[in-house]
């Protein structure tokens, strides 16, 4: 009878985070953390989990066999999303956390934290127009990370990524926890779009195409390196112009099609999971995991402190940052435009925290 009551209490704890048994106030108890699927996996938190990106992202992460514990945090609607996702018969244990008073419980013990919290664009807006709201949200969430899981890998999706990643870095520096290897801005959607659009032009399966996209994640800072595509291919000047412009404006294409109902959510959730999965494979110690990401490149790629480029992921996050490689004249001129805008966005993020 006693045992049956304990079992039921453990199950209902999924939906009622305040009922969790905490060990010494840090970390969740062994029983609550075990993965039903068997093998021990990674603990992942999604902050902004009830949003347009957060919900499909939570669903896809629940399907990831590398995840043993999935924490869903938001300031609204997490109980419903958690109840829904928790019925999926996959291995990860899911728990919901609602509101700032539960942020620390949501973050404690996490290996990977993914942040899609914040407002999305409406038609006519640039990503920078989101700065005033999203900067504060990212700052607060990163203060929580510095306190509760300073060793976690952090994937930042909230826009403007070109500024929110520098904001996160400044918060971590102030807390004394900054490790440039563990902070990554998610630019994977630009790569996903580039692979798709290039495959359309070449008449290939997008899964066979690999387009490096460097720079940042907004307008002209999104710089596809069409000269370095695998498999090797060439384009006419008109094709290069069309592809570059479509990749740079892919987000706006979706914002306009959604006509006020938000920005890319489903393709973004797909891209975020592709990227998070690469981070988890790196954490597991798999070899040769290379993806593009906006990272603290310590001025080793360009003179800028942050830049998106190909990076190798490993047990500590970013293990190696690759140089840009040979650029053609079109790309060199694009790089100059990208650097100019990036410098302003990075400065804006740094100043926001230090004001
Ligand atoms: N990096 C990229 O490629 C990319 C692509 C698309 C969208 N985005 C960005 O992702 C963000 C989210 O987009 P969306 O469409 O999911 O928006 P959304 O409005 O549908 O969802 C955002 C969620 O964040 C939550 N939230 C707000 N403040 C919060 C806080 N302080 N703590 C925790 N959660 C909070 C909201 O309650 C909501 O559930 C936007 O900033 C958008 O611009 C990035």
From TrEMBL:
A GO cellular component annotation in the UniProt record: peroxisome
Keywords: Glyoxylate bypass, NAD, Oxidoreductase, Peroxisome, Tricarboxylic acid cycle
A Pfam family annotated for this UniProt entry: Ldh_1_C
Binding sites annotated in the UniProt record for substrate: 121, 127, 159, 193
Keyword Transport applies: no
InterPro entries linked to this entry: L-lactate/malate_DH (IPR001557), Lactate/malate_DH_C (IPR022383), Lactate/malate_DH_N (IPR001236), Lactate_DH/Glyco_Ohase_4_C (IPR015955), Malate_DH_AS (IPR001252), Malate_DH_type1 (IPR010097), NAD(P)-bd_dom_sf (IPR036291)
Chief localisation class: other
Domain of life: Eukaryota
Domain Lactate/malate dehydrogenase C-terminal: 187-352
Location relative to the cell: Peroxisome
Lactate/malate dehydrogenase N-terminal domain span: 43-185
Binding residues for NAD(+): 48-54, 74, 134, 157-159, 268
EC number, UniProt record: 1.1.1.37
Enzyme class name: oxidoreductase
Biological process annotations from GO: glyoxylate cycle; malate metabolic process; tricarboxylic acid cycle
GO molecular function: L-malate dehydrogenase (NAD+) activity
Catalytic activity: (S)-malate + NAD(+) = oxaloacetate + NADH + H(+)
Gene3D superfamilies: Lactate dehydrogenase/glycoside hydrolase, family 4, C-terminal, NAD(P)-binding Rossmann-like Domain
Catalytic site: 217 (proton acceptor)
Subunit annotation: Homodimer.
Family: Belongs to the LDH/MDH superfamily. MDH type 1 family.
Protein's name in the database: Malate dehydrogenase
